[in-house]
Amino acid sequence: MARHIYSCPLRWSDMDAFGHVNNVVFLRYLEEARIDFMFRLAPGDGSPSFAGGSVVARHEIDYVRPLVHRHSPVTVESWVTKIGAASLTIAYEIKDPEQVYVRASTVVVPYDLAAERPRRISAEEKLFLQEYLAEEPAAV
Amino acid sequence: MARHIYSCPLRWSDMDAFGHVNNVVFLRYLEEARIDFMFRLAPGDGSPSFAGGSVVARHEIDYVRPLVHRHSPVTVESWVTKIGAASLTIAYEIKDPEQVYVRASTVVVPYDLAAERPRRISAEEKLFLQEYLAEEPAAV
Amino acid sequence: MARHIYSCPLRWSDMDAFGHVNNVVFLRYLEEARIDFMFRLAPGDGSPSFAGGSVVARHEIDYVRPLVHRHSPVTVESWVTKIGAASLTIAYEIKDPEQVYVRASTVVVPYDLAAERPRRISAEEKLFLQEYLAEEPAAV
Amino acid sequence: MARHIYSCPLRWSDMDAFGHVNNVVFLRYLEEARIDFMFRLAPGDGSPSFAGGSVVARHEIDYVRPLVHRHSPVTVESWVTKIGAASLTIAYEIKDPEQVYVRASTVVVPYDLAAERPRRISAEEKLFLQEYLAEEPAAV
């Protein structure tokens, strides 16, 4: 089982008035990792359709440790925990070599932009996603 | 059981390149509603301590319908679904009179900024929170 | 000479780690005021074209006083200081009854989205903009 | 004369509903470059005081070309165009090898956080800044 590794640079403005990376901003980090995973890797594996659109149906996110701005990036590891007929679930950990900051998961629905409606996952996409499929979600 | 009602103005920049309010931005709306609920109302009811600090431990959020920018605000209704010894769970609906856009919940941990650690919920805070307590979470 | 008055709600997240509304965020307030001015008022006065697109060519912004998050909105007053053949200049003050926080100006270029290029200001738009035209820019 | 070079990663969410990097977001890029310049480099050259605080007094920014999200970073080149008694002016270009997207300048005022007031630039800081001093601002 592979994990997609995304090196995520922080911005100073990611911190809020309490001096920590704001809880909402971590979902931006997940978005960047997910787009890198689905938009950048998928086409190379023959799944141009994901680039055409997908919709977030649900997030779950657990905040394990606070994070302060620094110049080195954090790592977002992503993998797939469920492949349904018309949705998939991505799990993530936001971490560095010392510790985990966030564990999360997102239900994504592929979307047909032309027809303006959700669509099924193709056989080709399934093949690609299965490389990243792990039975276990992130342990919280 | 009361619900806290927050009228949440949108910003044009809340939309992403797909022309919808971005999924991450809805968590900003929840943050605004939660701060309004906990920072503004609580002190008047004798709970200055919440203003001193609290930490988000977890979010769950379901996206029911897309939302496009408009000049009228959306309503964020908030209530309490669980009061623990050292945490509480807030449920929300983001809606307008016609429909619901988002259902979500957040686990909040009161935080002692001086001691730099989580703290227990006081008896006084419990009284305040119980006014907003409902057994049922938002139906998804 | 009229000024366009926009009541601009703050968000808690507009503050940065120094506990003030971040300098970049004030440009969001200007954006909201400008959109309210150009997208909302203009159509009612017969200038649907502005809603079709416009591009920011330049900002100048002076920070007069720091602003801390509060629950009452600030006021953004906007007016027009220059109407060119294919651009206009909007001046602004961000203020409340006690003081001015920011003075700024923006050069806006009307844009033809279909043709993908800048376009001239129509006679009709000029009439609308002239109501807000003042010779003097904001005094800094 | 040296220029400070900052490699600035974009985020997908930097785009607005028109599908371009939003004009306000470019000021975030300038902020990241400026913080990298002043907070990270200055201390190593013996100017810890800049890290203690500084305030933006003014921005001027010209938008030369639209920018669309991509996975490769843009470069922010920064240099100093004026060193006053209690302020300095930084000029920037946001570019890639092919073209320039933005030219801008910022007046920064060093700030004494303990005394809560602006302060003078030290002789030591002047020496550091002079390495980046160029008489000419960015040509617009």
UniProtKB/TrEMBL annotation, chains A, B, C, D:
<dbReference type="Pfam" id="PF13279">
    <property type="entry name" value="4HBT_2"/>
</dbReference>
<keyword id="KW-0378">Hydrolase</keyword>
<protein>
    <submittedName>
        <fullName>Acyl-CoA thioester hydrolase</fullName>
    </submittedName>
</protein>
<dbReference type="InterPro" id="IPR029069">
    <property type="entry name" value="HotDog_dom_sf"/>
</dbReference>
<dbReference type="GO" id="GO:0047617">
    <property type="term" value="F:fatty acyl-CoA hydrolase activity"/>
</dbReference>
<dbReference type="InterPro" id="IPR050563">
    <property type="entry name" value="4-hydroxybenzoyl-CoA_TE"/>
</dbReference>
